């Protein structure tokens, strides 16, 4: 039941440490949502360094994601969450005149302030996300009813989800406070916002995933699911296991490492399931990568739910 | 001797960079173990909020000072170091508090600043503060001279090198006109006449709310006075990092995206004119020795159908395993073609299940220092 729960939200934050297939999960969720008829937006947080290449963009056959939402696949729009765009949007909304906001941002001193202050970056990103959720079609429906955010590394994820609580302790009134409360309303309401934590079935990544779950819950995020990628498929029946034990030589042999990996994976999955009540989805290791892996995962997700 | 052993033996600062999930923290800790075994007093400093390093070293998080790894724990793990091994997780709040106490002589002013709500919140933020305080912490540890070597494990992000740049950005802001506007009214009005200041104040109070604007003025007035010194330290450290007793190491793993990131870091390090000392490729299977493939010779004299089907499955696993090794060799040769020919590349095999204790770190340390595992990138193509 993981997929329908996720597809029911407006904003899904996909999080997990590097190398676990987080971007593949983001792209697969976007595809699954588009197939279910949702108006989908995939996003990632712009880091100046990433402009040159983006794994998420490559999932949709592009080098980078556009600055404004644009179609990247049938039924899927994509864009970057950029600090500066968010700040401009915010100032525009406050001053009610977008041109004035742009003018203000051309001021070198203000740009430096926004660049330097801790959490100004997150605030810009946060506001742009809020702006994208608010967008409506001319007939008053949400412009995007499913927004997937491919989140950065753990620390930065928690910096973003924890932003409203920390800033609201400081800024209690005024437009920033109002925006933070509205964003909190979207993200922390389990009907509209959720996080998906991605990991792989190895001991240390599982430990870190459980820490991330704790961290996200501490920032009031609801977690819809734990996706465990790259789970090696165990081809042996119990009887075959017995026979296998009689075959294995004492010395080195191709295949022994994979057998050990399978055992670690089984143990890691057990540990995850025992440690949390969040639904755990084990995704088999695909023989492909890049966008092909995202397609394979989309198919797997749908098959898993009998869709 | 490999260049890495020389670095560990001679340098004062080692900085490990790389993408998330490549084993950077573990590598930093193992290098620290290696240096302690070499007789040096070494500190490993991580700005990654993960608890892993602390757990592996057996020190707890959020301690005010670096914690020395106990000799009996080292002995238990088969590590015998004539030097000392200490670890610390960067805590922005602690670094800020210590710095304020050091720089502000008047205890009443210290109390005022620490009671300011903005100071309290800002120093607890994860976002950004790590970057600002990393330089100050590094500066503090290096200046004090309690350690022969400080190893810094940078945060797992593409912008990991931002910490080099963060103090400068903050410095520009503090010296800038916007900052002047945030300061409470003083006699004479400073660089701005009263009108400009009142206008700016109106806008800021409108955006942030009155209350916050008032807190902000108090905060900047107090913090501004110590800022020049902080910024000076950061600038000094920034130049300090270009000296030849510092080395940057790139850590990566045989995953295409991690390799792409490594090449990106390599560019950045050169661009910033920082000393790049080598590349450590973790979890590589390219060195795996040839071994037999499972075949019918494993079957007993009178095999059952179960034996045969178990063997068929095993062959599939074996083929996958061999395939991985081939892929790793291919990725490694791509890497070798893209880095300068004289860079030392150290390859580390995959440790099943990962390294999560001191014994594992000791083993990794031995591997890293073994010159048989060091290559020039040109040899790997």
Report on this structure.
The complex is a heterodimer of chains A (307) and B (381). Chain A is of the alpha/beta class. Chain A is 52% helix and 15% strand. Chain A has helices at 2-7, 22-35, 55-59, 83-95, 98-106, 108-116, 120-134, 154-161, 163-170, 175-187, 203-218, 238-247, 256-275, 291-304, and strands at residues 11-15, 40-45, 70-73, 76-81, 146-150, 193-199, 223-231, 280-284. In chain A, strand 6, helix 11 (203-218) and strand 7 form a beta-alpha-beta unit. Chain A is elongated and about 75 Å long. The relative contact order of chain A is 0.16. Chain B has 381 residues and is α/β, with parallel strands linked by helices. Chain B has helices spanning 3-10, 24-37, 52-57, 71-76, 92-103, 107-115, 117-122, 129-144, 166-175, 177-182, 194-208, 210-240, 256-271, 305-338, 358-369, 377-380, and strands at 13-17, 41-46, 67-68, 84-89, 149-153, 246-252, 276-284, 344-349, 374-376. The longest helix of chain B is centred in the last third of the chain and has 34 residues, at 305-338. Chain B starts with a helix and ends with a helix. Chain B is built from 16 helices and 9 strands. At the A-B interface, helix 6, helix 7, helix 8, helix 9 and helix 10 of A face helix 7, helix 8, helix 9, helix 10 and helix 11 of B.
Q: Using only CA atoms, what is the Rg of chain A?
A: 21 Å
Radius of gyration of chain B: 26 Å
- Please give the alpha-carbon distance between the first and last residues of chain A: 11 Å
Q: State the share of residues found in helices of chain B, binned by percent.
A: 40-55%
Characterize the largest beta sheet of chain A: strand count, sense, and whether it forms a barrel.
8 strands, mixed
Q: Based on helices, strands and strand pairing, what is the structural class of chain A?
A: alpha/beta
Largest sheet of chain B: 9 strands, mixed
How far is the N terminus from the C terminus of chain B? Answer: 22 Å
Per DSSP, the total helix count of chain A is: 14
| Overall average pLDDT of chain A | 88
Multimeric state: heterodimer
Q: Could you say which structural class the secondary elements and strand pairing of chain B correspond to? A: alpha/beta
* Weakly predicted, low-confidence segments of chain A: none
Shape of chain A: elongated
User: How large is the share of residues in beta strands of chain B?
Assistant: 5-15%
Share of helix among residues of chain A?
40-55%
Count of helical stretches of chain B: 16
